[in-house]
Design brief:
By secondary structure, this protein is mainly alpha-helical. It has one domain. 88% of the residues lie in helices and 0% in strands. The protein has two helices and no strands.
């Protein structure tokens, strides 16, 4: 079980790091705005899972 949680945490952190790398190094300003808008649009729905 501990191994599964470690792998899951690594996958989440790896995905976030990859997203940030693409955002900083490969996206132009229009694409960055679209990425920010998408994250902010889904934030209210994600709060349901983040807050206890």
């Amino acid at each position: 079980m501990k191994f599964l949680l470690t792998v899951l945490l690594g996958a989440i952190l790896g995905s976030a790091a990859t997203f940030y790398y693409i955002y900083v190094n490969h996206a132009d300003s229009g694409e960055q705005a679209l990425m920010r808008e998408t994250l902010l649009t889904y934030l209210p729905f994600l709060e349901e899972y983040i807050t206890p």
